[in-house]
Amino acid sequence: MRWLRFFRRERWDAERARELASYLEIEIDENIARGMRPDAARTAAYRKLGNPTRIREEVYDMNSLGFLETTWHDVRYGARMLRRNPGFALVAILSLALGIGANTAIFQLIDALRLRSLPVESPEELVFVRIGETPNGRTGRFTGRYPMLTYGVWDRIDKGNLTSFDGLAAWGATTLELASSGESRPVQGMYVSGTFYATLGVHAAAGRLPQAADDAGCAEPGVVVSYPFWQRQYAGDASAIGRTISVDGKPFPIVAVTEEKFFGMEVGRQFDVALPLCAQPILNPESNALTSPSWWWLGAIARLRPGVTVEQATAELQGVSPGIFEATLPGNYNAKSADDYKAFRLAARPAADGTSSLRQQYGDALTMLLWIAGLVLLIACGNLANLMLARATARRREMAVRLAIGASRRRLMRQLMAESLLVAACGAVLGAWIASLLGGSLVSFIETPASPLFLDIAPGWRMAAFATGLGILTCVAFGLVPALRATRTEPGKALGSRGETDPSGRFNLRRVLVVGQLAVSLVLLVGALLFVLTFYNVATVDTGIRTEGVIVAEYDYRRAGVADDAHAPFQREFAETLRNLPGAGEVARVSIVPLSGSGWNQSLFVDGQLQTGYPLINRVDGNYFSLVGSPIVSGRTFDVRDVPGAPNAAVVTEKFVERYLAGRDPIGRTFHFDAAPGETPTIYTVVGVARNARYSDVHDDVEPMVYLAMEQETQYGPFLSILVRPDVPAEVVTPALITAARERPGMLAQVSTLSDTVKQTLVRERLMAALAGFFGALAAALAAIGLYGVMSYMVSRRRQEIGVRMALGAGRGRILGMVLREAGVMVAAGLVVGGVLAALGARYTQSMLFGLTATDARVIGGAAVLLAVIAVLASLWPAQRAARLEPTVALRDA
Amino acid sequence: MPRRGTPPIQGDMLQGTLDLLILQTLVPGPAHGHTIAHVIEHRSDDVLQVEHGSLYPALHRLESRGWIQSEWGTSDNNRRARFYRLTRTGRKQLAQATSRWDELVRAVDRVIRPAAPETVD
Fold first, then answer.
1. Chain B residues lying within 8 Å of A25, measured CB to CB
2. Which ipTM score applies to this complex?
3. pTM, whole model, 2 decimals?
4. How distant, in Å, are the alpha carbons of A135, A743, B14 from that of B58?
């Protein structure tokens, strides 16, 4: 009932008014009947009744909902105030929206990367089984993004009857090929053990997922596809189950589709196709990962038995480790590697949130960005607080009057806070919208065509909650203190004095706020400079390789029907074909594409002695060095003399010479690598020395490198990587490179440029430089605006004083100096505090920097100078205004 | 100056009693505000001087509780006025309130005029 009355209050009030009017009429009639005169009758009637308006008010109040209604009034009042100052409202809401939007967008990314669990049953019960602290003592071949175990080790764990676990599963991520010829169509693949789906609790959207029993024997391996893949390729057609799909050229039946929410083991990636572990040799008959004891490609995950803790599981694993590693020791390890291997200990680690190379790559960067964005928001709030304080001071009279006639302090504060709340609410809503836009662009910034990101950053309740929380926080931050101060006014003082004196002098709140803003923006500027310089360093580092203009063409000819012993002539002939393409320029074969993240290393023996460290190895054609601009500095490159049968030639880098061959002339010296026991190691003779170069990543240090002759390769695989430096623009040659593959049935080609490959490794630096730079500039701008605001306020308040001074003879210059000195004090204080904060906080950024230290004095000094210049410019305008005051005008305008 | 929305400075007891008086005056039949006010004064021999202004909030309260209902009508001297009448719930409430009042009166009476003198040891 009360609600009904609430909405019809107006009508009820009108009724009430009529009722009271009728009462009065009746009473007046009676009074007249008793003999009073009309006007006396009226007066008597009114006196009898009391004040009709008050009665109406009382009834009206009974119909209202009290607190809610007053709050609604306050909000409407606040909206009116804002409408009257559209400029302020716009600036306030916009700066808040930007701050909240940036924070929310970054939080979304962090949330999607770090805080979500795997979409499986009870992810908190899952643990990874891996070697405890990933040691450096692992050698051999590493493939995939989570290469923790070899198949041999996994098999023993699986069959080891461990009591801590209810289920064990293994998986290996890989790229699989869907195309049969022409341009390659890679998809994200997973090799999984038969227990994988059951252990994780993944359900099928269609078909029947393989169970443990099906794994044995691998008689008819079937393919499981992911839900998005099913939608993409088969439009969700149920008849896709049972159809054949060609993976790496081999046909497999599709047996099931996983449920929609399952994306695999890696946060940020989406798997397309999954095969049983035993299918690996089917796809790669020449390299069987199941029987290779030093091929690391599997990750293992297990479900803890109820009641078992992670520590208990680790203890059990550590107990069985010695037996497992003894039994699986690779035969060709030297003594030291063997000892390292036998010392491995397995452990269990919580696996609820899956693995993510992305998390490692970007986790720190995103957290730092969140801090930065948070600080920018703080500065924006500082500005708003300053503005609120100024307006509160301007409304002192109004507040005083209202306090004097009986408004409670709480009531007034609620009204002032309503205005802040309105601004914060608009800012938060706009910010959430900005965040949804920004989130998408952040993701596209990070992802690359080769590795697209699949992050669930759709706007959801978490994002809304975060934005709302920020909104409330900012509202309190910049609304509470001004509201408190505004209502603290003693009415008498405010009403009495005409001019307003600044009660607290030097250390008043607004100045402290501005000093704080300047300090924080100095910290952010320092950060921005650090990251921009880092990116510059990383992008211009001398890799020893000229990457611009180099095309990388990777060929897969597993299904081209080339016999095992025909690889060498096939590759040679194919390379010739490419060389003869018009405009091809320089063409060189390589076994490892430089700066692509791949690698190959081995133990080294010089003069029979095992050397420390593992030099990095690559096989290249003779013209490789001129192609990549890594010239030979002494000796020669590979040429027609280096053929199978001739002495095995090697070109080493300067660093290699420095570390391993110092003293004598390196040309002619010999060395060899590890060999399996019983095999004689191949002896290599140094024929030339090349300039140093970085190997797999621009961030790495320069390491010793060995180049071997492509012609003398003994272990050919059905893969070929070619570097091309064309004479004509890349777009002209690229189609020809792909067509060359199409002409050979069953051959696949993938073409990209070397600079793109390198750029992908620099994404994080680019991200930090762009965003930190943007935020640093924004922070400086906001602090400058804050300083400007305070200075112009100060000037306007001291107009009388300035007028007096000018009248007494002070020149414009002196006034200018006086104002600038005021500003200078604040700027200096801000710089000092900021400098200290920057020096203290710098160590948190060190891990993300390249080529400079976080406390580099030049960077801090440079940022300080930059901020000082901006600040001076910001205070120049009010200072000019002060100096240009006409004394008479200033004095008159009291 | 008292704050808005607070009840007039009278005891709760008095407010409840006013409700009782109003309900009672409506027993014979519907009446409008003016009549109710005069009936209360008249019946109590002018001892109970109800501020007529506080009548209307009380009427409003009773109506919102559903104990009385109102409609527009014409008064004796052909004036438009709002007439109130008891509802069935109102009659029940009246009976309850009357018996509570009786209890209260008896209780106060017992305290003021004890039947036998009590000795204090």
1. 79
2. 0.71
3. 0.72
4. 85, 99, 11
